[in-house]
Amino acid sequence: MEGVAMKLPSFKSLAPNAISIGHRSFSRVRRSSSLSVFSAASSSATVATSSESVSLGHRVRKDFRILHQEVNGSKLVYLDSAATSQKPSVVLEALQNYYEFYNSNVHRGIHYLSAKATDEFELARKKVARFINASDSKEIVFTRNATEAINLVAYSWGLLNLKPGDEVSLTVAEHHSCIVPWQLVSEKTGAVLKYVMLNEDEVPDVDKLREMISPKTKLVAVHHVSNVLASCLPIEEIVVCAHNVGAKVLVDACQSVPHMVVDVQKLNADFLVASSHKMCGPTGIGFLYGKSDLLQSMPPFLGGGEMISDVFLDHSTYAEPPSRFEAGTPAIGEAIALGAAIDYLSEIGMPKIHEYEVELGKYLYGKLSALPDVRIYGPRPSESVHRGALCSFNVEGLHPTDLATFLDQQHGVAIRSGHHCAQPLHRYLGVNASARASLYFYNTKEDVDSFVVALADTVSFFNSFK
Amino acid sequence: MAAAAMSCAASLRLLPFKPNLFASSVQYPAKALILRPLKPSELPSFRRTIITFQKISTGNVRPPSASPPSSSEDFQPIEELPPELQEIVKLFQSVQEPRAKYRQLIFYGEHLKPLDPQFKTRENKVEGCVSQVWVRAFFDDQRNVVYEADSDSSITKGLAALLVQGLSGRPVPEILRVTPDFALLLGLQQSLSPSRNNGFLNMLKLMQKKALHLEVKGEEDSSSEESLESSFVPTPETNGGVSVVDKDTESKPSFVEDLGAEDSDGGSDVVALGSRGMRIREKLEKELNPVELEVEDVSYQHAGHAAVRGSAGDDGETHFNLRIVSDAFQGKSLVKRHRMIYDLLQEELKNGLHALSIVAKTPAEV
């Protein structure tokens, strides 16, 4: 702990549970200025006593105005960040700022405003590249979201490279966005989709996946962290396997990039996709990471302005990546706001965020599994198994829709119920739907407590009819 | 009724403010549902009976239109609902506490007659429900629609039970006239926005679609027996392929308006009011002293269903559209206004007048 105190002069890098004298005196000075804001902002925040530091969740709550409201007569408890995350004020300000002060079309103009907009837009691209440790910002293609990014790869790389009989390996736990594009493209090309099921730990069977990868496999498309099971796949291993047979790997990192350090060079993935709106950025922007030589070899996806080099009546020549895949005017303000979100997350530090979420996720899992008749999907957390900070679950004899409705209307707790865009997975698990509570670094222990109390109340309400 | 109006307002206050509450409040003209399967080009020329009675020329004669109260602030008065449904709404209004309302709802669901598994088919499944809901509909021997339903979610089952109990045993036109507005009166914070997740809305739509389908099939069976004047003609396209009541409710009003516009050109089709129509007009004129009075006989739209065929009444004069602009409505709530009119027409209602669609305004509101 003392080592930590020495190393970290900045208030922001307080480990959630750090207790140390040196820390305290340092941090007291820093904290006092923002203390009043905490107590004003969050009635549930346990303001630091002399022996405890304020948790990350409590510290950042002031940045998220949307969390400070009542719904249906109760304090809002937002547990649906896996569906979309909330945005800190700095991100909203960046977006507003763009439109108020330097909105202009990018890459086209010469005047001051357009130069500034272009600079900021390209700076945002650099920020994304740095965030995931891409070797060059040219490897970042801005898209509307991760779904569009996957479609880009499917229609551009897929249509060119998939031949009849080629195999695309997927898991049964994939999000629809990483299933349907491959279905569409395999119909057109004659490629075959192969799925691995779950093993007894309720995670995709990586051994079976290894067996499935053969010289016929051209692409392995898998999630990094599952939005239902909360499991994490060993991407590095999978990439090694795939590259051995000459197959490419696309990683759906929607649930990982926002929550932990993701290093594309370390993973050595060929493609990686993520959405801004799940990582404190606005909707309408996402990105595809692709290795330079891969992107170079790919034909255009959408055609139009910006992605061309020269246009004649009967043909056109195309720009270099990433522009080649960015037809039309991009979501400029949104990209810049995504850059601001990345700045915000980086300032806190992804390792810190991850550490906090592992703790809180464990806490959630523990409290939830202690309730009778609750069945949580995915692996059990352990030393070796780190779950994402979400729990999809079902309560015996209670439909998730009833659960979610009651939680919302009687307790202001926002969770999700349904198939979470993973119908094949639910079918495999033998259920029609599940409820899901998902956390982000702005949630607190109190949020989890409120949720569990509300859940218990809900269960007993519906049980009273039996 | 005053109590209903007041607790109606009270229930509305329980709801979180939804800016689009009225904008998206379904314009659910039942008649559009009847007419919908026909393409405009195939519409038979309707013989309509319109008399516009105006004391003061306001300069803009509204084209005869088939739509019920179209202004978005009017939402369906409780009296237009089938009686059972009215009772259910009143019951829920009398229960103030939200938890108790839920209890009541789930209680309804628990007492829903189970649906035989053989009926849990794809056609009977309500689209876009996160939970599974099935609805089955068939005619009883008086050609009233009987419903059965089931769901795996307690709340949805409760809502289904509400609809089953409220709509079962009623004739098709009455069912088709029901708009989802009444759900607001239940105070369950039921959203009415058309979306794939709106189980309640989709349930009601499916039930109405099935009722219509039964009607169409029934008419096909009997169209050889009677030649119904200007009745809705089933075409091959409508057989089982009733245009899916789509989730885009915006298209409905415009469809109806097109129809209205089209028909206003057919001047040669105007026919005088029958005796009932005349009596209605006289009564309303006498008692309400209206500035504007429109009495429109739209019984032909309902010709062919049991309540009309051979009804004890004047040549099948069973359904009317009324538009009344009168000072007598000053200071009265919508519900009260409708009540006034129904009271005035008690006799007719007892003797074969089946239903009224009413627009009641004060001169200031026009």
From TrEMBL, chain A:
SUPFAM superfamilies: PLP-dependent transferases. It comes from the Eukaryota. It catalyses: (sulfur carrier)-H + L-cysteine = (sulfur carrier)-SH + L-alanine. Its EC number is 2.8.1.7. Keywords: Pyridoxal phosphate, Transferase. It is an enzyme of class 2 (transferase). The keyword Transferase applies. Residues 77-451 form the Aminotransferase class V domain. Pfam families: Aminotran_5. Its cofactor is pyridoxal 5'-phosphate. This is cysteine desulfurase. It comes from Camelina sativa.
Automatic annotation (TrEMBL), chain B:
Pfam families: BolA, SufE. InterPro entries: BolA, BolA-like_sf, Fe-S_metab-assoc_dom. Residues 216-249 are annotated as: Disordered. Residues 232-241 have a biased composition (Polar residues). It comes from the Eukaryota. Residues 90-209 form the Fe-S metabolism associated domain. This is SufE-like protein 1, chloroplastic/mitochondrial.
